[in-house]
Amino acid sequence: MQEKGSISIHTENIFPIIKKFLYSDHEIFLRELVSNAVDATQKLKSLAQLGEFKGELGELKVRVTVDKEARKITISDRGIGMTAEEIKKYINQIAFSGATEFVEQYKEKDAATKDQIIGQFGLGFYSAFMVAKEVEIWSKSYKEDTLTAHWTCDGSTEFTLDEPTGEHEKAERGTDVVLHVAEDSDEFLEEARLKSILSKYCKFLPIPIEFEGEVINQTAPIWTKQPSELTDEDYTKFYQELYPFSEPPLFWIHLNVDYPFNLTGILYFPKIKDELQLQRNKIQLYSRQVFITDEVKDVVPEFLMLLHGVIDSPDIPLNVSRSFLQADAAVKKINTYITKKVADKLAELFRKDREGYEQKWSDIGLFVKYGMLSDDKFYDRAKDIVLVQDTAGKYYTLNEYQEHIQANQKDKNDQTVILYTTDPEAQHGYVQAALDRGYSVLKLNAVLDPHFIGQLEQKLEKVTFKRVDADTVGKLIEKDETTESVLSDDDKTKLTEVYKAAINNEHMQVQVEALSPQDAPVIVTVPEFMRRMKDMQRVGGGGGMQMFGSLPDSYTVSVNANHPVAQRVLAQEGEAGQKLAKQAFDLALLSQGMLKGEALTAFVKRSADLLTAE
Ligand SMILES: Nc1ncnc2c1ncn2[C@@H]1O[C@H](COP(=O)(O)OP(=O)(O)OP(=O)(O)O)[C@@H](O)[C@H]1O
């Protein structure tokens, strides 16, 4: 038989389109052809199981070989093969997918068959023309008494098809696809290049793939197995294979769902070394064990891109544009499912092993807070398992914490005031003053915490947050009780004037307050609102703000009317009073780590003078 004909397509010259636009990455031709070979092999295995193929299966391997001299790449399989008629039907009719027909035909008999077939679009084969100037198919069907079919095509819409006999006849069942590599695709004749493409896309294919006499894949990666079959070691070992030289993961989630969409995979929570250097693009997306991409944006919720691992789903459309992917209903469902699974896993860890959960909190806290901030549904799922830590290191859930502080930290308007520090060292004096009052102070010093605080204030009822240095301790949580001042109004005015003159800085708002005699003589604070505004400005890259040494624009200087220093300042005349006031003010700055440079030198000198004075 010798036949010539035209490939039936609906668009004039579809090849240039395929070549240029179908796949931006030429290397995926190998993925497509190896997938076809694997499909053909899987089909044969299914037929054998169904009793429709009774012959010897033999060793079912897919072989990839390259002959640099002859400029040929060959992909061989021992699958079902094709007759000349089938080649006409499946190969010539672009966009008519043999895979679809196969599934239709056999779906009643064997549901699993459907999932084992990669091809869905009927275009994969033609990706060969991205790198080849001519493609040959040599195929022999599994069906008895069929001839070898030989098809050639040079990338135009013309093909030849014959059924050679004698020495050209194919001895074994299966298909050899031979690519005659085009001049502009020399790179694909390099063994090393082919090997790296194979290990990128085919590392977990279900049928052994041999290249240069070596099998390059694991046919049953652990995500295809049942969690009950696997040990912790299996999971950590697989993690090491995916990400060599990484620290062991904290824990993992085995994804496994088959309705209303199909998805398997394993997501790992990595150990985070540095919040600012989070690694994205660490999740690999597979479709029936064929690697597709590590850009899982849209498929995985944004905040979970920090996770590592693999996701395998035949339901994710692969050859479509990004905007379509975003709108795809299956993708949306997958997104929701993954979010839910992650929340469930965290809740389970929290319930089953609170101590272990707390130990991991410094790593997982970031995911949880990021998730709560970026996804309202996740907020609802995670609000009972998000932890806060006080300055003594004890962890609480939000409910536990509100319960813990509610007797002592409600203000006169029935608002619960949560006190926090962003730097327990630098704000030590304020933290200590709050603790001495019997208040509790949280450590909220993570990158996301300012946003987290904002969110909690919106979501929780009657709760406000105040940094410990936002006010003098007596006024952080405003109660009805007031401390009486021992000073007369005249004295207060006088004291204010002395301090103003001593400080001589318009950004410092001096006020005399009746604090406890045990409090410091002078306390410098920044109102919560002002500080947050400044922080925002800084995060937003607001120019002009210097990181060190510069004072914020607005400070409150609270002079303690009830401290003995107030009396001493008032008792001194002129310069001497100001000198004392300045000293007390500098002490306040010093306690907040704000006394620097010249001011610090002057303070040290003044202290020495005061020590030697009569
Ligand atoms: N190695 C092979 N052995 C047997 N049949 C094959 C082989 N390669 C291709 N075919 C047949 O040709 C058809 C078309 O292949 P093609 O790669 O173009 O599309 P597909 O595999 O169905 O879908 P996809 O575009 O997702 O790859 C296949 O469905 C299959 O019937």
UniProtKB/TrEMBL annotation:
Coiled coil: none annotated. Residues 25-167 form the Histidine kinase/HSP90-like ATPase domain. Belongs to the heat shock protein 90 family. It comes from Hymenobacter citatus. The gene is htpG. It holds the Pfam family HSP90. NCBIfam families: PRK05218.1. Signal peptide: none annotated. Keywords: ATP-binding, Chaperone, Nucleotide-binding. The keyword ATP-binding applies. The keyword Transmembrane does not apply. This is Molecular chaperone HtpG.
